[in-house]
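Table S2 (continued). Query chain:
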Amino acid sequence: MRGLFLAVFALLVVAGDSGRYAPQLISNAMSVLLPSHQNVDNASSESEETSTSESAQSDNIAPNSANTTPENNLRDNALALLWLAAKQGSDTAQAHMLEIFESAYNNGFSSTASIEKDTTTYFLEKLVSLENADAAWLLYQILGEEGASERFMRLAALGDVAEAQLAFAMSTDSPEKREKWLIRAASQEYLPAQAALADWYLLHGQQQLAKPLLAATATLDMQSAFKYARLLWGEGDTSEAKLHFKFAAQKGHQQAKKALETIKLYSPYSVAQAIRQSNDFSWEGGANCLQRVQPFATSLATIMRAHELYQSFNDDSRLRNLSICLAPPIWLKTDVLECDANYKRMGILGCNITPLANIAKKGKFSHAVVVAEQGKANVQNGVMYLDISDAYSVFVHELAHFAGFADEYPIGKGMANKLCDEDGIEDFRPPNVVVDTEYWYAPHETVDNWLAIDPATIIARAKTCTVLGLNSYKPSRRITFMEHHDSGVIPPLYLVLWQQQLEKQNAQRPISMNFFQAFHNSGNRKEAAHWLAEYEAFTGTK
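Corresponding output:
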């Protein structure tokens, strides 16, 4: 027993006389905060509590806590001792404090033995004053984006805390700063930062910079595996790409599953191969296929989208009675079509479609759909252009343009000048729009047709000619799919008008007109003459 009292006495001497000695401060504090590491009995703990409290209170550094139980006071005073050691430059003390605070944060400050949130933020702010980057990041996480100062996140980022560097990168609107901090975070082999930097490079068309990052994360993250597979496929490494598609699909990546399904169904063709492949598909005869539409794709991403559109059309009961036939898409090799998101500087998607001419001769399609990577959807005579982000509703909207329907949203000034007067609309005669004249609507035959189909038709204001300040009208009060493709409806009257237009071949502009114009402009008289004859035969204008 005498030996025990000597030990306790020695501990008190060390705590009192060596109260500023960092290792001793750490030892005293940790014996309270981690009691399982103690080598003394309860009597020793009671003595240390007195010493710890006195040492902390002498510097007035223990926080004022609302919960003033003896246990909390003891923990707060022990933390104060760690802070004294940390202030002396002890990395060990700072590490112990961070470990304790992070554990409390991860437990939601819910454990009865846990450090309180206010106590945690109090001491973390003190550690931040020592420019402790990890403390700054933990404090930022605890306080949240709104409650924390950006200073905490920036300090953590400057201190090479990868999580903070990623957060700082994503919080800035400056492209230069974002890339800089993404690079710094990714250089620490932080997986989310590597994936984010790869996305950044892909967004800016820097595939070769993205490739090593995706390679590093492809076996750990299904999204990276999918993107890496697409990149490899684009480079022609199809075998390796399939392996990564399979990995991503096994992890539950739906697009990877669709990619594998699409690869089984389609292969990229040259023009010659596509011509030979035309023998595998035949159109329905007669009135069932008054419009024969052939989709084309130029990459794995676009053939996936084209296949989805093909499936959606076949499942769309609304259009089932229309005399439109849609062939399975043809996947062309990347060098076949030259496309541009700003075609002829018009701000719309377009392609040089002359390579499709020989396929059209064999395939006998009247219209084409080209799905490209990026660009604004539009219809140019008998060719529809879509990009991979366009929904099926966009396809249906553009498909109606093939039959001569006009937009019911405000059209551009150039088109409005052609359409929105009595003479101009007589040339176009859209089935769904008429304009004001001095006496009535024009064309009056269009209104007569609406009323013949449904005498209860309500003629309502359209927005088509708004840009010129002119009135235009449509046969429905409802917002239709020609005004808002995503939320608009296809009224029954419009389906009747659509079928009527299909039966008027001279109301359409088939792809033969595109080919005629393209070959005429390039000086190829023979091909131009061929396609002019095809156009006249289709429209009955010969």
